[in-house]
Specification:
single chain, about 220 residues, alpha/beta, seven-stranded mixed beta sheet, about 35% helix, globular, binds S-adenosylmethionine
């Protein structure tokens, strides 16, 4: 997903690009946006001791989790300084939030463990091999019984369906994002199972937007 791409996938370092995305997101960004957030809320476990958000952007999902489970200690990672600045603004004055610069192309840092790891529209920027590796790293950072929720931009089943999706969001994007590496839901569910997650499923989908879930065994 993008709003005015710069070649090479580094558009998120650009303050203008980050501002454009945040404006679109503030307006709800995509059809069914609110619906997807409702399902995320529903899937937040009853007890969350600590939450991690990968590609946190302006901290949207961290804020959503903390609205449902107030005061949950939270860590957000992103490689975009302008987006992290927006997250600092959104979460200003809140205790227990740590925002760190990290490129998800690199192995996840040692951050301790989490009961919930979320990601919103970020992992689709990674190559498939790295997606598979990051899923295994996420599992390792989860407490037994912990949950991973990935609200993601996924591949359409056919080029015609991709064209339909692009037409449906034409008011937001008029060109392909060169940094997208879209993968089918089915492949990603397989990768989550291969990594060792259980209760893997796609709980919500509208065209190229999907919510994938996997739990770490051993609650
Ligand atoms: C479409 S925005 C989504 C922001 C937020 N998660 C949300 O759901 O609103 C994608 C975010 O992923 C971040 N991102 C993309 N590739 C990344 C990478 N390789 N490492 C870290 N962050 C990345 C971008 O900087 C941006 O903040």
């Amino acid at each position: 997903m993008h709003v005015g791409a710069i070649e090479g996938g580094r558009e998120w370092q650009d303050a203008e690009h980050a501002r454009g995305y945040r404006e679109a997101a503030g307006a709800g960004a995509f059809p069914r946006w609110a619906e997807s957030e409702d399902v995320v809320r529903e899937l937040i476990p009853p007890r969350v001791g600590r939450v991690l958000d990968l590609g946190t952007g302006d901290g949207r999902l961290l804020a959503l989790v903390r609205a449902v489970r107030p005061g949950t200690p939270a860590v957000g990672l992103d490689f975009s300084e302008p987006m992290l600045e927006a997250a600092r603004e959104r979460l200003a004055g809140e205790d227990g939030v740590e925002l760190r610069v990290h490129d998800l192309a690199d192995p996840l840092p040692d951050l301790g463990t989490f009961d919930l790891i979320v990601s919103g529209f970020a992992i689709h920027h990674l190559e498939d091999e790295r997606k598979r590796a990051v899923y295994a790293e996420i599992l390792a950072l989860l407490e037994p019984g912990g949950r991973f929720l990935n609200l993601e931009h996924v591949a359409s089943a056919t080029p015609a369906l991709h064209a339909e999706f692009m037409a449906a969001i034409a008011h937001l994007e008029d060109e392909e994002d060169p940094s997208n590496r879209l993968s089918p839901v089915e492949d990603q569910l397989d990768w989550l199972r291969e990594a060792g997650f259980e209760d893997v499923d796609c709980h919500w989908r509208w065209r190229e937007l999907a919510l994938l879930r996997g739990d770490r065994p051993g609650a």
